[in-house]
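tool_call: predict_structure(chain=1)
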Amino acid sequence: MKIPYIKENLCIHCNICVKVCPRKLFTLTPLGVTVKEHKVGCISCSLCEENCPTNAIKLINVS
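tool_result:
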């Protein structure tokens, strides 16, 4: 199983991950400062990773 990991220093808060995730697992804080990933429910489709313009999202293996 893979889950998204966000390198916050690379994230530019573009909101693309929020838009492309079919499970709606990404959210922005009310201030629009940080993207948080929700690991429960990820289907490892890679859309977040593939569409991130700064490569801030990586899918990592978990056991």
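agent: Helices lie at 16-20, 47-51. Proceeding to next step.
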